[in-house]
Amino acid sequence: MSALARLGLMLARDPYEGLQRVQSASGSIAGFGWGPVKYVLMFGPEANAFLFANSGLFTVREAFDVLVPVNGETALIASDGEAHRRRRRLVQPAFHRRRVDGYIARMAENADALLDTWKEGETLDVYASLRELTRRTTVELLFGDRLAADEELLGGELQTLLDGIDRPYSQLVALRAVPNPFWRKVLEARATVLERLEQEIADRRMDPAPRDDVLGLLLDSRDEDGGGLTDVELQDQAISLMGAGYETTSAALGWAVHFMLTTEGVWERARRELPPGPPTAETLKECAYLDHVVDETLRLFPPVVMSARKVAEDFVFEGHRVPAGAMLIYSPYVTHRMASVWPDPDTFRPDRWDPASPGHIPATPASFLPFGGGQHRCVGSVLATTGLKVTLARLLARTELEHTGAPVRPRSITAMRPRDGVPVVVKEVRPA
């Protein structure tokens, strides 16, 4: 069996262990493949720093070609060069921290509405419950109340879209190559979402009253020449942001609750730190330990296990020549679990993020990259981390939960989430 086939089988069977085994055996760089089919895996902070500092050596359009039928031709994740820079400049202001701070009250209200439905003594999958909350809040914040009224419909179609790209690369290539019922369903789901978005965009162009949701900000955004996003660009950004926004955030919420309930003292310490009253931008700044919990969760279970670039020009890294045309893979997951970077890497230890803690090692953009890095770093990272803190703060303030002890294992490489959920017993729900 070829090295490439062995790698493919290993990653399909267990991508997490498979990637770590490749790094352990090969160090910072490994190559697989033959002829025109070449894969290069690069691991660790030095490799990440090289990748982010030399973006001109790579393209993302070819690397993420399999995602284009779902996310769209103009989505940031599949854009390169000046087109990417222009779109990012137009999209980024909608996710500035000042804008995100204005969403905190809605995030807290929605979390409280969910907790009001929980019953003391019941056993529930807290991940599934928080996933529905995150989806509803994401649709409201991105697209306003009118589209939020269709949240259940949009959520179902969005899940079909996400299922369409939540598969190994080889499967995605095969599904696109041959007509099949699964891929037809994915494309039909995208058409349904697009139809609703087109109507919403048309309605807003007819009634240009200012709106504070992300879609309103994107409609109003202008570059230095006075140009804005086209309708196609708006639709593509909307679909990719909507899908990524709730899938990755809800996965991180599930892992955070799991670790907070199964690591002695974490839940109690995080709750003691909370200021009284609903969270605000100012009171969240006082929750340093909750920040550490969020960072440690994203270190152990980053939203994306691995990402890719297509090599556009030959280059040399640590004495190894990498040819143009190769597919380059890098892995936040592996970097975050390298003992040479993060001592005791498999242990959930929020204190490692405290500058006053013994053994604290400052993170860098190359050693801690849950949202990627460089020019293609996730534009919604502030929205995601703020949503995590607000939801966890309301859980801590209002509930007592007990983990059932059932094993919690990961699945997926596009949004590493708990495979069978996070079952908990609701011991108490306090009034808002």
Automatic annotation (TrEMBL):
Its cofactor is heme. It comes from the Bacteria. Keywords: Heme, Iron, Metal-binding, Monooxygenase, Oxidoreductase. Belongs to the cytochrome P450 family. This is Cytochrome P450.
